[in-house]
Amino acid sequence: MTNKTALEKLDTKITLLLEKYETLKEENRRLEATILANKEREEKLQQALNQLKEEEELKELELEDIALRISKSMGLDKISS
Description:
Layout: H1 2-73, H2 76-80
């Protein structure tokens, strides 16, 4: 009778361990999916940021060109030389 009780306890513990394993396995799967989604989101944000930086650089060049044209049209470029 005692052996059966010990086996039943062992069976219960094994069952609990397997349930915990399956729970952790599912949680791990969800976390991996979240990490992947976050990496994809980060990549898209990085691409958008790079595009904005490029646009900003182009605008700066455009502003410099406009300032240079204004200086030339007012004859200010000859004064600073």
